[in-house]
Each structure stands twice: as C-alpha cells, then as structure tokens.
Write a sequence for this structure.
C-alpha cells in the first residue's frame, strides 16, 4: 500500500512537471505576433592619442564641445624642433647654393677650355710652319690638361653635394615627422564625450587625450535566438523611452551579431531556454537619443 502511494506521488509530480514545461514551451513559441525587449543607447566613440609622450601645451576641448574633422585637438611640447628644422633648411640652401656655384664654374671652365683648344690648334699650325716655338704649343697643352682636370674635379663634387643634401633632407623629414606627431588632429567630426587630460599635463604615448563621439548613438538590444526572425537587417521596429511610452519612434535594424552569453530566466523571463542571444543594433530615425538612455523595443511580425 505504501509503495503504491509513492508511485502515485511520483506520477503526479511527473504530470505536473510535464504540464508546466508544456505551458512554458507554448509561451516561448515563436508564433507570437510581437515581442518587447529592453535596449540601451550606446555611443560610437573614438579615442584620440599621441604617438609619443610629452606635455600638453595647448587647451584641450572640454566635454560637450564640437570638433571638426582635421582640426587641432592638442599639441605637446617640442623643445628645439622648430630651431632644428630652420637650421636644416638653412644648410640645404647653402648646399644648393654651392651646387649652383659649381655649375657656373664648370660652364666657365668649359668656355676657357674651348678657347685653349682653339689657340692650341692655331699655334700647332704655326709650329708646323716653323713660325712659332714648340714650347708655346706645349704650354697650351699643359693648360688644356689642367683645365680638363679642374672640370672633372668640379663634376665629382656633385656626388658629394647630393649626398649632403640627401642627409639633410632625411634629418629635416625626421624633424617634420616629430612635429606632426606632436600635433593631434581630429580624424572625423564629432562631440567630445570625455576629456582625459588638460593643458600642462604629461601624456604617455598611446594614452587617450579625449574620447570623441563620431556619430549619433545607436540602440543595442539583446535578442534571443528564437525571436531573431523579427529583427532582420533593414526592417523597422517601434521604440520608445522606457520612462516616456508616449514618445515612440521608429528605428532601423542595421546589424545583427551573435554574442557568447545565453538567455536565462533571470534576464529574459519567459525566454528561459538555453538559447544564444544576438546583439542587434538599431539606428533611430528622425530623432536623437542620448547615450546611456534605456528604451523599450517592440518588434511585430508582419
């Protein structure tokens, strides 16, 4: 009798469990016409930093200020770089002037060589006729050879001057690169979300100076796998602030990405099965949202 009673209790428990599970499955059926989930507005931000360390010597835009693309956000100290750049430029100009003088000297020596060659031919004819002494012809030959040697020497200076100019150009480019690395430019227009450093503070290479919001915030909502069919890319969903149901607007689904966590009873209520969730991004239409604001997202089956 006692054994039969325990069997009856087990059967009743199994029946109740089966009924409860069936009810839960019926509630989680994807045939429901709509679903409501919570979403949060997240900014699309960009951290701006220097490629080298230094002390900030200019004002840094404050939080909430607008920054235009290509504008100067901040500069770090560059002791001696400007003087070095001017010095290298002066040295390059001197080398170029020496090269110009070298070319002028070569043209002058070539003109002298042409005159010497002409005199050598004339004196050669006179020596052949016995009118002029052979010593005069030899003197002209020595003069011609000396002029030719001077021309070759001046032409060889070209390589030396070119090497000097290339070295100075490389040093000047290095200084300009340092100057460029010392100026932080905004790669895109946006609004300053966070100012991490102020004027006068030391900044490490790679450390953010400001965080820039480059685009309007999007709304992120976590969707369980069983209801993902209601959130296809390009479709529209109805959204309203959690505290203002009367201020509803539409948002477009722009991306769907899988996430590692799974839906649980604690997070999703009736969606209690171990189903993978998907991160869905929504772009608000004809409205502006504030980062961190929470919204109710309603998707309706069409």
């Amino acid at each position: 009798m006692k054994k039969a009673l325990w069997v009856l209790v087990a059967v009743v428990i199994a029946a109740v469990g089966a009924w409860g599970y069936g009810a839960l499955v019926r509630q989680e059926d994807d045939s429901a016409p709509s679903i409501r989930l919570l979403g949060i507005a997240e900014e699309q931000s960009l951290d701006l930093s220097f490629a080298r360390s230094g002390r900030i010597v200019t004002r840094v835009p404050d939080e909430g200020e607008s920054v235009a693309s290509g504008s100067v956000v901040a500069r770090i100290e560059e002791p001696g770089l400007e003087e070095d750049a001017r010095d290298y430029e002066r040295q390059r100009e001197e080398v170029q002037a020496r090269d110009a003088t070298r070319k002028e000297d070569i043209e002058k020596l070539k003109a002298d060589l042409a005159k010497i060659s002409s005199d050598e031919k004339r004196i050669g004819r006179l020596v052949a006729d016995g009118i002029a002494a052979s010593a005069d012809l030899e003197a002209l030959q020595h003069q011609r050879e000396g002029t030719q040697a001077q021309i070759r020497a001046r032409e060889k200076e070209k390589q030396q001057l070119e090497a000097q100019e290339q070295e100075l150009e490389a040093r000047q480019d290095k200084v300009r690169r340092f100057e460029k690395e010392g100026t932080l430019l905004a790669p895109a227009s946006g609004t300053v979300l966070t100012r991490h450093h102020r004027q006068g503070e030391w900044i490490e290479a790679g450390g953010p100076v400001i965080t820039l919001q480059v685009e309007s915030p999007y709304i992120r909502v976590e969707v369980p796998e069983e209801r993902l069919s209601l959130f296809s890319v390009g479709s529209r969903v109805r959204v309203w602030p959690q505290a203002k149901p009367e201020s509803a607007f539409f948002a477009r689904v722009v991306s769907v990405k899988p996430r590692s966590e799974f839906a649980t009873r604690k997070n999703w209520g009736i969606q209690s099965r171990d189903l993978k969730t998907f991160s869905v991004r929504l772009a608000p239409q004809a409205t502006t949202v504030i980062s961190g604001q929470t919204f109710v997202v309603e998707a309706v089956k069409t």
Notes: The longest strand covers residues 208-224. Helices lie at 2-27, 81-128, 134-181, 265-268. The CA atoms of residues 75 and 183 lie 5 Å apart. The two ends are 58 Å apart (CA to CA).
